[in-house]
Design a protein that fits this description.
9 strands, 35% helix, alpha/beta, two-stranded antiparallel sheet, single chain
Length: 209
């Protein structure tokens, strides 16, 4: 399957097996089209041995498991996924549904991914100090309010290495105007990131030059 990143025309070849994993993981939270672009971004990041993938907003772990499975499929057995989420400590409101740590752990265990998928239980604005630099992929899908998205972008993208990829979910002016405003403002301030794809989600890459 060929995934075309619409802002650049870059084409990423995604195997049938990898596409099937994305389709199987599709839900109301992220559809198959979006998840296929996520695994394409993971492939484009060219993950190195023992690198770290960070996702902000795990909910119940479906995307976490997909990232793990995709890493395994691509031969990156030593890479790990760190999921940051307050789970039950967060409020449950429209646009920011509360995750479940119990369901997250159950899903990770069922996938046999406990040795490579880890949860950092807490709010992302506090957890950044525990996250090292050199990230291959950063997924931002936590609190969708403007200040929260801006803070996540400011505090975590600096940890993404050259050639690394940032995937921001729910880029929708109608449903999540705060996400759009935060991403657009970030791009004005940070020329070191190029937009690879933009639709109801955004794929960015830290420039190699």
């Amino acid at each position: 399957m060929l995934v075309v990143l619409n802002e650049t025309g870059i084409e990423v070849e995604v195997s049938d097996e990898l596409a099937a994993l994305a389709i199987a993981a599709a839900s109301d939270m992220m559809d198959a089209h979006e998840l296929t672009h996520l695994v394409a971004g993971l492939k484009l990041a060219e993950v190195r041995p023992e690198e770290l993938i960070v996702e902000i907003g795990a909910f119940t772990g479906a995307t976490t498991v997909l990232l793990h499975q995709a890493l395994q499929h691509l031969g990156h057995d030593s890479a790990a996924v760190l999921s940051i989420d307050p789970f039950e400590a967060s409020s449950n409101e429209w646009g920011n549904p509360r995750g479940s740590y119990r369901r997250f752990r159950r899903r990770i265990a069922a996938a046999g991914a406990g040795h490579r998928c880890f949860a950092l239980v807490g709010f992302s604005q506090d957890a950044h100090r525990a996250v090292p630099a050199g990230l291959a992929l950063l997924v931002i899908d936590g609190d969708h309010r403007y200040e929260a998205v801006r803070t996540d972008l400011d505090r975590y993208t600096s940890k993404v290495r050259v050639g690394g990829v940032v995937f921001v979910d729910d880029y929708s002016a109608e449903s999540y105007p705060g996400v759009v405003a935060a991403v657009d403002g970030f791009l004005v301030r940070h020329g070191e990131f190029v937009v690879l794809h933009r639709s109801w989600f955004v794929v960015l890459q830290r420039r190699r030059d």
